[in-house]
Amino acid sequence: MAAPCLIINGHDYAQYIEELTPSRNDLDAEGSGRDVQTGTMYRTRIGTKQKWEVKMLRLTEALHRQLISDINPVFFNITVLDPVTGARATKTVYTSTVPFGAQRYDRDSGAPVYDGMTFSLTER
Q1: Please, is 123 exposed, middle or buried when counting C-beta atoms within 10 Å of its C-beta (0-12, 13-18, 19+)?
Q2: Is residue 56 part of a domain?
Q3: Which of 15, 39, 87, 102 stands 20 to 30 A from 64 (CA)?
């Protein structure tokens, strides 16, 4: 059995994840929808794509910048535990909106830290 993982650009972020929630998105053909008279649903699924909702734990400033850099390209590869197969899989994904999380300061060092960074990874 494979352990959950999140590897982006060769960096393993598994230990910094608070939540990693996979889901399936259906891609429907043009013309799919409900009949307005009967309410019957007609659909032709032409494909599926996976999506992962990610919520990070507290990140140091350096780790935060590294993650932002890793998810900045238009498309990039990740390695995750595939919820369908139960095995590690490499997927090409993209992100769009990326809330950086709450910027706070470590009481001991005074260094900035980021709490609760969230983003979606959507399969290309």
Answers
A1: middle
A2: yes
A3: 87
The CA-based diameter of the chain, rounded to the nearest angstrom, is: 66
The residue type of 44 is T
Residue 35 lies in a domain: no
Residues in a beta bridge with 33: 42
Q: How long a stretch of residues is the chain?
A: 124
Q: Residue 96's domain is classified under what CATH number? A: 3.30.200
Number of domains comprising the chain: 1
Domain, as residue range, for 53: 6-29+43-123
**pLDDT grade for 24, boundaries at 50, 70 and 90:** very high
**Domain annotation covers residue 112:** yes
Q: What is the pLDDT of residues 76-94, one digit of tens each?
A: 999 999 999 999 999 999 9
Half-sphere exposure of 76 (CA within 13 A, CB side): 22
Cβ-in-10-Å burial (0-12, 13-18, 19+) of 88 comes to middle
Secondary structure (3-state) at 67: helix
